[in-house]
């Protein structure tokens, strides 16, 4: 075979793979999942599927696999017992009934899938000591690449956390580093005196999915007037300090054990938005911070200049806000979703985001009724099907 023909085959196959990917949005409406595709150029929504979750009384959560060939749904039955449903999707990302697997999942409360789609991690919380404590455990499962089914539960971490009036703690999984060799988790506690949190990393064995011991990365403690919000993106930790009545600030750290020296620190002296954010979300690239302005009418886009160790205003904005709503970005960050409350639900707008220039192109709005889940953060979910 000639080198020219070989090159053509590689390029043609690569172009075909790119052309076959679709941007998918799942919208929860009661116990029904509506599937939409978003045109990358038109930014219009096209409904491609409707799925009713059989036997479910309350929808809880949805997580797509990294290639969106499967989705994992948690929902409770009429007795409020949680079940895990695994659905295969078609070429448009629409889940197909019946589920390939349905599991009894009492006390399940948190899910993560590793970026290589080999392992499934879940947090289970079980009351102990008359309910005054919670035994919270991290379980690892294998994922069947053919049908998405999970099996082989192994306990990878154990915590005993307080759960009494005025003092309660909660374990959650917060994601992976850029090459999926570390899993991050947090223990957040709320007390009469204020809230506090500890953040850990665990090594991930790429062959078995086994987790190493927890190693503390960071911790903070509030006094009732102050708190911090942490987001992990790539190999960095983004720390938003809310310190009423003092001005707020943004600190960016390397996500390493006992991190203490920020790469970038932003206060009002650098950028006014750092000192009074309405909310903050990090772009999947780790290069931008999206900050809601004080009146909630728009979202400012700020660029992180790591070489100059500063955060600067791009002058670009997203319309409306995604404060309190579902995942704001498509997996690669080229779409940004914003939402506006209405009397009957909310309007979900698709916007194209140029990661190189920070330019925004506004797209269509999707009207979503009020029959979704009580937690608006679990109202819609984004994926790329390829």
Quaternary status: single chain
Total DSSP E strands:
27
- General form: globular
* Count of discrete alpha- or pi-helical segments spanning 4 or more residues: 2
Please explain how this structure is put together.
The protein has about 375 residues and is mainly beta. It is about 5% helix and about 55% strand. The chain contains two helices and 27 strands. The strands form six sheets. An eight-stranded antiparallel beta sheet has the order 8-9-10-11-12-13-14-15, with no helix packed on it.
Topology record:
Blueprint: H1 3-19, E1 22-29, E2 32-38, E3 45-52, E4 58-64, E5 70-76, E6 82-88, E7 101-104, E8 108-113, E9 119-128, E10 133-143, E11 150-164, E12 167-176, E13 182-191, E14 195-203, E15 215-221, E16 226-233, E17 236-243, E18 249-254, E19 264-266, H2 272-275, E20 280-282, E21 288-292, E22 298-305, E23 310-319, E24 335-342, E25 345-353, E26 360-369, E27 380-385
Antiparallel strand pairs: 1-2, 1-27, 2-3, 4-5, 5-6, 6-7, 8-9, 9-10, 10-11, 11-12, 12-13, 13-14, 14-15, 16-17, 17-18, 18-19, 20-21, 21-22, 22-23, 24-25, 25-26
Brief rundown of the structure:
The protein is built from two helices and 27 strands. With 386 residues, it is mainly β.
Observed structural traits:
single chain, 386 residues, mainly beta
